[in-house]
Amino acid sequence: MKTRRHAKILELIREYDIDTQDELLRYLRDRGFDVTQATVSRDIKELRLVKTLSRTGKYKYSTGMDNSNDVSSKFYSLFSDSVISVEAAQNLLVIKCMTGMAQAVCASLDAVYWQNFVGTLAGEDTIFIVCRNESAALEAQEEFKKLISR
């Protein structure tokens, strides 16, 4: 049953721009799956779904692998338009954004695979990134600074 449900979830997120667990829950119930909110939440974690920007500008669930070129180009565009500064501090990166943009930049950053990033955290205008080590932080800092200067 779980395998069928996971397959249906993947099918649904490809077909529809689903942006909340409640919406996904409704789609599953409409298709005969008797599930709870907790089950949907676990499924999202197990499938490693992420929220990415849809064509309409809203966020939607995705595997993060769909249209990877499209996702990465949106990330670079959003990053260069919204980020003010990037500073490394040991194995951390501190990214300052225009007010209100940090969460969107962070979500798009999370949708792109970064091998040396352990995790991210965003507020209103600041993003913290934990890197695997100091050299990874410095390398990312240089790459990100190039994006800002475009």
Reported by name, the CATH topology of the largest domain is: Gyrase A, domain 2
Total beta strand runs: 6
Which CATH-level-2 architecture of the largest domain? 2-Layer Sandwich
Overall residue-averaged pLDDT value: 88
Please write the CATH class name of the largest domain: Alpha Beta
* C-alpha termini separation: 50 Å
Order of helices and strands: HHHEEHEEHEEH
Query: What is the gyration radius calculated from CA atoms?
Result: 17 Å
Low-pLDDT regions:
none
Our count of helices gives 6
Summarize the structure.
This protein is α+β, with helices and mostly antiparallel strands. The protein has helices at residues 2-15, 21-30, 37-46, 68-82, 102-111, 134-148; strands at 50-53, 59-62, 83-89, 92-97, 117-122, 126-131.
Structure description:
With 150 residues, the protein is α+β, with helices and mostly antiparallel strands. It folds into 2 domains: 61 residues, Winged helix-like DNA-binding domain superfamily/Winged helix DNA-binding domain (Arc Repressor Mutant, subunit A, Orthogonal Bundle); 81 residues, Gyrase A, domain 2 (2-Layer Sandwich). The protein contains 6 helices and 6 strands; from the N terminus they run αααββαββαββα. The mean pLDDT is 88.
Features:
alpha+beta, Arc Repressor Mutant, subunit A, Gyrase A, domain 2, 6 helices, 6 strands
Task: Set down the secondary structure blueprint.
Blueprint (H helix, E strand, L loop, with lengths): L1 H14 L5 H10 L6 H10 L3 E4 L5 E4 L5 H15 E7 L2 E6 L4 H10 L5 E6 L3 E6 L2 H15 L2
Helix pairs in contact: 2-3, 4-5
